[in-house]
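Re: the request from the purification team.
They wanted to know what the chain is likely to look like in 3D before they choose a buffer screen. I agreed to run a prediction and write the result into the notebook, where they can find it.
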Amino acid sequence: HPSIFHFVKSFDPLIIVVFGGLGSMTGTVIAAFAWALLLQGLAVAVLPSNLLEWRYVLYAVSLIAVMLLRPQGLMGGRELGFLKNLRVVAQRKEPPVGAPAEPAPEVTHASN
């Protein structure tokens, strides 16, 4: 249903990536699970109903705190084994766009 995708919901991927760390696949996966747990469970269970609208302020404060105190994210540069392999595959060398091509072989035309 489109009404569940409101403006505030669009910040969830950004928050997950910042918490997990921009260069860490493991941190991002862990942050995604932690963020879902926080959103679905703890925020509703811990905060009284009259403070639920304050959870967005708590999200902003926690995001700023992570960016100031741990800018590399939860895991830093460490990766779990199976996710480390995915990172290696993603970083394979591709020739840069606009790189000079190798010269074409000379073609000789046979005369008739």
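For the purification team: The chain has a mean pLDDT of 72.
Please add any questions underneath this entry.
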